[in-house]
């Protein structure tokens, strides 16, 4: 019993020693959050111009998602594609319903699988290597679709392009939410959906212009354009700053502080932002502990 009392007393003493630091962190976080919420939209944009530019980079990933998905879906409507891959039918060419269903199934399956795997990979390695791998797969998928000689190869290309689409949807929204200032975070998050639709509109525009060709270029231009998206994204990727939230959550607070210093000028409240990140992550951990796990749903106590 004496050992238990000593352990309890030591725990209480430890908590009492940490109390000033916890209070200081809470005070800094509260001050930071209050100031962020009082900023006007223009003030928030001016103070966070570099983080918002990287949010735009993530918007570009969503534009790529919208374009890639649209390019693979509308290609069947192009006459030259049906001539090269379809069969004659009543003076026209058609692609069988089974193959069209296969196109959709391949995209949905690979997108879902890509989102699942990339979520695990981002949690472990961060977003930069995952985005790199995603665009390399996108390049390979576009290559296979561009040079495919039959529908089997074309479906393989769609699977390869579907995997990065899943990665983009997993990487972009959380990053933008973490990097955007509090006062306009909702607007920035909504921009993701707009970017996807914009990518689809670009896909329609490219198809309309390419349809003027009377050969394979009428549909191959769609796949070649995907290489352009990848080239632009990869050119900026080496400078991509990881989210301070992710860095702090993985025990790299010093790197998180350095990223904040690169993204903001000297007058920025770095201490307050770091405190807000730490407090936010602490709340998330507490909520996760309170919710329990999926395994507990199947425990004897829950039956």
Automatic annotation (TrEMBL):
UniProt KW keywords: Membrane, Transmembrane, Transmembrane helix
Membrane topology, record value: Multi-pass membrane protein
Residue stretches making up the Major facilitator superfamily (MFS) profile domain: 54-303
Main location: membrane
Subcellular location: Membrane
PROSITE patterns: MFS, SUGAR_TRANSPORT_2
Transmembrane region(s): 52-78, 98-122, 129-147, 188-207, 227-248
Single GO molecular function: carbohydrate:proton symporter activity
RNA-binding found in the keyword field: no
Keyword Transmembrane: yes
Stored InterPro entries: MFS_dom (IPR020846), MFS_sugar_transport-like (IPR005828), MFS_Sugar_Transporters (IPR050360), MFS_trans_sf (IPR036259), Sugar_transporter_CS (IPR005829)
Top-level lineage group: Eukaryota
GO CC, any one term: membrane
Region (Disordered): 283-303
Family to which this protein belongs: Belongs to the major facilitator superfamily. Sugar transporter (TC 2.A.1.1) family.
Record protein name field: Maltose permease
